[in-house]
Amino acid sequence: MKITNPFLQGPYEPLRNECTIENVDVLGTIPLELTGTLYRSAPSAEFLLDDPNRFHWFDGDGMVHAFRIENGRASYRNCWVETEGLKVERSAGRQLYNGIYGRSEAPQKPLPEGAPEIKTVAGINVIRLGTHLLAMHEAEGHYWEIDPVTLKTLGTFDFDGQVSGMLTAHPHFDPATKEWIFYSLDNEKRSLTCFTADIHGAVTSKFAIPMSFTPWNHDVIFTAEHFIFFFGMISWRPYAEDRIPQGKSSWFIDPAAGTDARILFVHRKTGEALWIEPENSPYMIGHFLNAYQDGDKTIVDASATPVSGALKTFNPEDFYPFPLVPGPAAFENPQLWRFVINPHEGTVEHHRIGDFSAEFVRPNETIMGQKHRYGYMAGAHDLRPETRGFNCLVKHDYEGNVTRFQHLSPDYDMTPGEPVFVPHPDGETEDHGWVLAVWYDPRRNASELVILDAQKFDGEPVARIRLDHHVPLGFHGNWIADC
Ligand SMILES: [Fe+2]
Q1: Gap from CA of 240 to ligand 1 centroid (Å)
Q2: 144 CA to middle of ligand 1, Å?
Q3: How confident is the model at residue 387, as a pLDDT?
Q4: CA of 366 to the centre of ligand 1 (A)
Q5: Are residues 338 and 303 in contact, defined by beta-carbon separation less than 8 angstroms?
């Protein structure tokens, strides 16, 4: 069968080898102050579907990639996250599971007794919580703990059984209160639960909110007072008997729900829920950059994907937080938006920033939940005829309203993943530090970790750490300074 699926080729091609590379080739000079590990998470696929052209980028198996930096040198290691579903397929020696987000159009194959009913991907994010390095998906009631050095899967992590439902892959840390902010969804029981946990991962509060619908929700943001959610038009039921077992995507459109966004504020101390339903709001939020309170207003910066077209033309499987899908699609390219909300008056205003596409938005996270000046993201700007996906990194200065772009190669498109801001150990200003991102070079069919001076964002990179193989374009990761 000829493989035409773009998510099995080029920068997305699954990587199946696990390897360790000491002393990776470096162009430039890695700052001596930079000591730690950049962990990245990406889906790969150990076994392909019977019809690989039905493979969805969000499915497959999770893999963690680690770039360790010390004394101006870099090493690299990658390793699968060994989920129960992957073990089941390894025992069978072939693909057994239908995907979660894509659709196989074939009934679920028989599974061995005791096997999990769906195979989660553990390929969205990797975060250190307390002493635990955790790989994450969003359809399980636990994370996967991995060894920070060997990257081997050690077991599961479930907050000592204090959580249930489908845990988000986007927990956030509030540096002001030293709390973790996260949530779980139980779309079969129609419930959302907001959690806080202390710095060690002990759950300190939980508030259950009844839900009248079954959203796919991917991120949460917070201010000093609230958890904030933006629910979009995609419904999600990965445990429904009439979805994945029938070869359908767990994503679907509920015509009764319409296309407008629904915004939920949950008070962090009382659990009080405040719903806002702005009219004429056909957009999806992919990720939040940050949020903060400004008097009686709440500012939310995010990447937003406008939706257009008649509802019957929407195909949720075409939703990618990425300007890639060619041809007409109900989902436009993601954009950088600022929301100004008065939660008590129920007013919501928003405006777009710039004319570029933007996703994988990140701030300097040492000030998350408080007013920020800068945002970093993957972008698409100065497009070429052959541009597919992101071709630059973007730094936006909200105070000066200045946007800077880093294309890395002036001659052709290289494709960056999510940028991660690493503060300088002696950093005194918000952008004193480095921006780290893994870029794919189509001319080498290989990837490199590029270190930018955040204050000279569009200048020459500080260092380029060049692998001879590609790291599949994935989603999220984090810098752990003392790993
Ligand atoms: Fe995400």
Answers
A1: 23
A2: 17
A3: 84
A4: 19
A5: no
Specify whether the CB–CB gap between 300 and 371 falls below 8 A. no
Strand partners, 195: 182, 206
Distance, CA 16 to ligand 1 centroid (Å)?
Answer: 23
Closest CA to 64 of 137, 167, 140, 141: 137
Mean pLDDT of the chain: 94
Angle at 373 (CA atoms; ends 481, 348), nearest 5 degrees:
120
The rounded Å distance from CA 321 to ligand 1 centre is: 9
Q: Report, as an integer, the average pLDDT of 105-112.
A: 96
- CA 378–ligand 1 middle distance (angstroms): 13
Q: Over 70: is that where the pLDDT of 367 sits?
A: yes
> Rounded to an integer, what distance in angstroms lies between the CA atom of residue 72 and that of residue 74?
7
Rounded Cα distance between 394 and 84, Å, is: 38
Beta bridge partners of 301: 290, 338
Distance of CA 276 to the CA centre of its chain: 25
Expressed in angstroms and rounded, the spacing between residue 29 Cα and the centre of ligand 1 is 31
Does the pLDDT value for residue 395 go beyond 60? yes
Distance 345 CA to ligand 1 centre (A): 30
Q: What is the mean pLDDT of residues 227-248?
A: 96
Chain center to CA of 163: 21
Q: Do 194 and 267 form a contact (C-beta atoms < 8 A)?
A: no
Distance from Cα 388 to the centre of ligand 1, integer Å:
20
Q: Where are the domains of the chain?
A: 162-370
Q: What is the mean pLDDT of residues 336-362?
A: 96
For 469, counting Cβ atoms within 10 Å of its Cβ (0-12 exposed, 13-18 middle, 19+ buried), the class is middle
Whole-number Å distance, alpha carbon 176 to ligand 1 midpoint, is 23
259 pLDDT band, cuts 50/70/90, is confident
When pLDDT is cut at 50, 70 and 90, the band that residue 257 belongs to is confident
Centre of ligand 1 to C-alpha 386, Å, is 26
The pair of three-digit structure tokens given for residue 10, joined into one six-digit string: 């080029």
Q: Is 433 helix (H, G, I), strand (E, B) or coil?
A: strand
What average pLDDT does range 256-283 have in this prediction?
A: 94
- Indicate the residue type of 312: K
96 has a pLDDT exceeding 70: yes
* 359 CA distance to ligand 1 middle (Å): 10
464 CA to centre of ligand 1 in angstroms: 25
Ligand 1 centre distance from Cα of residue 358 (Å): 13
CA of 305 to the centre of ligand 1 (A): 14
Q: Compute, in angstroms, the gap from residue 2 CA to the centroid of ligand 1.
A: 30
Ligand 1 centroid–CA 138 distance in Å is 9
Residue type, 324: L
CA distance 462 to 429: 19
Q: Given a cut of 60, is residue 362 above it in pLDDT?
A: yes
* Buried/exposed 52-78: b ≥16 CB within 10 Å, e otherwise: bebbbbbbbbbbbbbbbbeeeebbbbb
Ligand 1 centroid to residue 27 C-alpha, Å: 30
